[in-house]
Structures are given as structure tokens and as C-alpha cells.
Model the fold of this input.
Amino acid sequence: MPSPTSRQSWIPLVVLATGVSMVVIDATIVNVAVPAIIADLGLGATDVEWVNSIYSLMFAALLIPFGRAGDRYGRRRLFALGVAVFLLASVLAAMSVNGPMLIGVRAVQGVGAAMAVPMTLAIINRVYVGRRRVIAFAVWGSIIGGMAAVGPLVGGWLVTEHGWRAAFWINLPIGVLLLLGSLRVPESRDGHAAGGDLAGLVLAVLGTTGVVFALIEGQKYGWLEPRRTADLFGLRFESVSPVPFAFGIGILALIALVVRERRRERAGLPVLVDLTLFELPSFRYGAMAAVIVALGEFGMILVLPLFLQSALGYTAFRAGLVIAALALGTFLAGGLVPPLSKTLSPRTIVRIGLGLEAVGAAGIGLSLAPDMGAWRPVPWLLLYGAGIGFATAQLTGVLMADVPARLSGGASALQSTVRQLGAALGVAVLGGVLVSGLGSAVERGLADRPEQVRTSAARAVEESAGAAIPALRDPAIHAVAVDAAAEATRRVTFITALALLAGVGVTLLLPRTPVAQEESLERVAAGGPDTGGRDLDI
Done:
């Protein structure tokens, strides 16, 4: 393998980081484009929900199977195939003529993303070692954290200037460059990987899909009592909600998967999910911290744009400019990780990052007000973003630090799944806090109004998560709704801060990365005495 001191050797990192950027931005950019899509294609409420949900479901459900497929068949090969699938689906999405077509190609986009994303981290973990790996992980982590905040800004600009189809067409030139660039990425695989665990594959897909569906759709359909009628794959749910059934099936499938994989492992048979990864303290506690980081980040990106656009009347682009401060802080902090890692341990940097996130989240909450200027939350967003940059960038390295190179694909997919579950949990929990807070605050604010008016306004604001506020014609009711949005959003930020403080506690369990390990990794990369050293095919 060429020494990564030359400019050419960093080409794989550039290609992989660009691939992650395309996928992460696309995951958030569509949220901004939804109103324009509705107007153009005449989508119904169910269609709109599935345009977003189907992508997340397919992405989360297939991460683990494709991670193992990359170990077996070649990580670069699967990355390039994933980019090609994602690119084809993007073109078809831009050409969509109706809701079912758009939903279908969004599902295919999720498949392509599930192929490509785990391979990026797996290849980085295999190609770069020592100090160069720290830099590579910092770049990868900053991309994951920052691009989620850049998506609304890019989406707002594209939709405003060029229409919603541009949000998909933009992937065409990027995808073509990625396919060409993938030729410069080293191939790697696990020569000992084996397939044949079809039942494990089914259980993994069923379990992940059920849990993620429940977390995403819980607020829409209700967890216990149904909030609305649901029509899913020909099954109509009127008196009961599909959410508890999906969640229960998902949990049972995951339990069955764990039992099955343990038995196959003891019998010496190939497994889909290598559960021994959780025996590594760095992976186990790093995964716990990753859930908390994802919960806070994606929950915050959910509620802040809603408040800025619905309560304060900002355009999507202006709201994106405010949120971009978070991305700026993330990228700046990510650049500071490599020099800091020379004097601070990885767990210390992660701890600092989570602490900054907690302070930033609390500061954002304190700055929120119905009459606030756009600049007021920006310093706190910068601080919050800096925390993400420190925590996410170094947490990636901690998670993968002790993972054998030959298991990189499976480990990368597993940590990506954990992050996806954390993001879904953040949307579910913090979104639930926001919605319930909106309804109760409007009810209190309109206590002197007739019950019908009070209930109607509260329901409209609650069910729309605040999106109905601009349409409220009565100035007094509108003012109450804006105050309610500020109060509910503030509550979400404070809960986020508490969760992040809990994450600081988890970092106390993270081990220090021994220097001897880095030296061992250097020997592995040089083809030394390790099973990973003979897996690389360049």
C-alpha cells in the first residue's frame, strides 16, 4: 500500500467523504422540498409521509446485511455499486410523475445508501493507520455531523431557485465523479467471510425495520391509542395503531437474531452479525455514546427548523442559514481533532465534545423567544456544532479502534445502524416532547376562550408539529401559538442537554487507546503477522 504521505494517497478519503456527503445531504434535503413536491405532484398526506419514511426504513434495515456483503465480496465494489444504485434512483426521482413512482425510487435510494455508507468507514479503517487514521476519522465524523445541518440550506436554495427536481438532479454530476473516483480506492475484503445465514438476514431486516418504523411513525399513528387511520400495504388500521405491532415484531426479531447468532458462533458456523464486537469495551461504550450523539443532533435538526419557519416565519433558505452555524462549528472542530489528539486521549476529546453539545443545547434553549433576532442562537449553534465535531469525529475512531481489519464492513454497518437507531429515537422522543408541549401550551394560553376554539387550535398546532401556525388568522390565537412553539422547543433543547450530560457519563467507561495498538496497526498495514494484513487487495 502506498504511503499516505503523498497527495495521491488521500484520494480514497476524498472520494469516500464525498460519497457520505451526498447521502447525508440527500437524507435532509428532501424535507425542505416536500411542500413543492406536494404542489407539483398533488401528493396526499400518506404519500408525503412515505416519501421520507421509506428512505429511512430501507437504509436502516439493510445496513447490516450489506456490511457483511462488503466483507465477503469486496468493500470498494459494494461502495461503487451503492453509488450507482443511488445515482440511478436520483435520476428517476427527478423524473417522477406521481407519488407512487417517487416513493418507489426513494426506496431504491435507501438501498443504494445502505450499500455505500458502511463501506466508507470500513475502507477508511483498513487503508489508514496511526495518525493518518485519526485525520481520516475526523473528516468522516465531521461530514456525518455537519452535512445533516447543511442539507436544509442547500435544499432551500435549490428548491427556491431551481425547483424540487433539482434536489435530485444535483446527485448526477456528483455520482458520476464518485464512480470515476472509486477506481482510485483500494479494494479490501475478508478472505474468511462466509455467507449462508439466510434466516439471520431475514431477522435482521425484519427487526430493524420494525423498530425504526415504530420510532419514526409513532407520533403519527399513536403508540397505544390510534391517532389516525393507517393504510399500510393493503392493511387498514382504524381502531388500533400499527406502531405497537411493528415495534413488538421488531424487538422479537432482534432477540431471535441475537439468540441465533450466538448459537451459530458457538457451533463455528458463519454469522451475519458478529456479536463479539460488543465484547470490546471501546465498541460497546462507543456505541452507547453514538446513540446519544445521534439522538441529540437529529432531534435538534428536527425541532429548530420547525420553530424558525412556523413560529418566526422564516423562509426555508433563511432557516437553513441559521442552522448552517451548526455545520460551521462541526467542520471547524473536526479540523482541530488531529492536533488535539496528540496531547489528549480519544475519550477526553469525546467527553469535551459532549460537554460542549450540552452547554450549546442549553444555550440555544435560553436564547429562544417569539421576538428573537436570527443572530441570537448562532453563537450557541456554533458551540453545539463544535461539540458534534469533537464527539462524532473522535467517537468514530474509538468505536473502530479495536475492531480487526477483516471485520471492518460488519462493524461499520453495525455502528451505522446504531447511529440510525439513535437518530430515529431522537426524532421519536424529542418530536413527541415537542408535539405534546405544543398542544398543552396552546390549551393553557387559550384558557379564556370557548372549549371548541381552544381544542381546535391546540389540535391543529399539535398535529402539524407547529406547521399550521402561519395559517392561524386570529392574531391573539397566533400569538399564543408562537409562544407555545417557543416554550415547547425550549423544553426539547433542555432535555437534549440532559441526555448529552448522560453521554458524558458514558464516556467515563471508554478505554484509552493504547499506543501499542497503533504500532500493531502499522505492522498490519505493512503486511505483518496479523490476519488483516493478508486481506488487502490493491
The radius of gyration is 23 Å.
